[in-house]
Amino acid sequence: MLDANTISDLYRLHSSRLLEKNVRSFLQFRGVNKGIRDTIRESPEKFIAYNNGLTITATEAIVKTHKKRQYIDSLTDFQIVNGGQTTASIYFSKKDGLDVSAVRVMAKINVVKSTDPDELEELISNISKFSNSQSRVSNVDLRSRNPKLRQLKNLSNSVTTPSGAKWFFERAKGEFNTSLRLAGRRKGAQQQKFPPARRFSKEQLAKYHTAWGDVPFMVKKGGEKVFRHFIEFISPTEEGNPGVEIDREFYEQLVAKIILFRQMEKIYGQGKNSIGQIRSAAIPYAISSLYQMTDGSSNGGKFDLEKIWRSEGLEDDLRDYLRNLLVLMNELIKKYSLSDDFGEYSKKPELWSSIKGSPEIEAFSSSNDTKIILERYTVQK
Asked: Is the pTM of this model over 0.90?
């Protein structure tokens, strides 16, 4: 059993490091978290009866005896793997002035004898999966601890853009909101430092990265399906395949893909001034077409994503070209779809197969406008 002041102090001193292997960060004071706060305020002595408590892992424990009673002297690699919402709720409640001195929390401590990282990851994943969790944990959340996602998080923390800015990668759900609460009075500065245009979640990461490829229908499926596809790409389960190296070059190109995708959303538009009503399908299909003309072609050059990274946007000639491509793709999706539900049919690989082999795409790819754009925006493979 732990007292709330100890838990609050641990979170204050170590914050996100304490929950590094937890699947989520703080999810605001709503739902169950609001109930935790209400219990602290109204019935703190009943907290231990109402709350599921914490599940903690460590790789080593030193236990000492004092007056015939055993006490934990230290824990190595201390991690709260289930109960992150409870931990953060206690901290922020105390920070907001609530008295937590009467609050006690049950803690289950698992000392993992094996130091094999794969075994530790499996244990933590199973704890998160099978525990009576306080709010739903999706399969996407469970995969947020993937080592390569942690590498991406480290890169987002350290790499600055040519203009000197940084991007915020929300590896764990609620991570950005937690950073705002921790910032306190500097909340506005944190929001200014990371505006929505320079933030992305792991689900968005999967969508933006996968769009640059030959599976736009997978992007349209979205959610857990495209995320599983992305994770399998960077971290394959097959033995002997190390997957993708997550380095600065990968990160810079990823940011360029995000910029490309989001700029194309603006080009397509919304409402009465938009190109059409199937933006979520037209954009990944158009990006995949550009990929087919460049990186995916045995004859073409490699698209210069580095140019987008350096300029942190799209130049006017490329924007005009992409608008024409989006207009064409909007029409082709409707023409080659075998269903009036264009959004749903765009999830099928058959539609992409029909479009990428169509005479319209062939004519567009061999046009003079395409030749000019590719001369300017491709480099040798």
From this structure: no
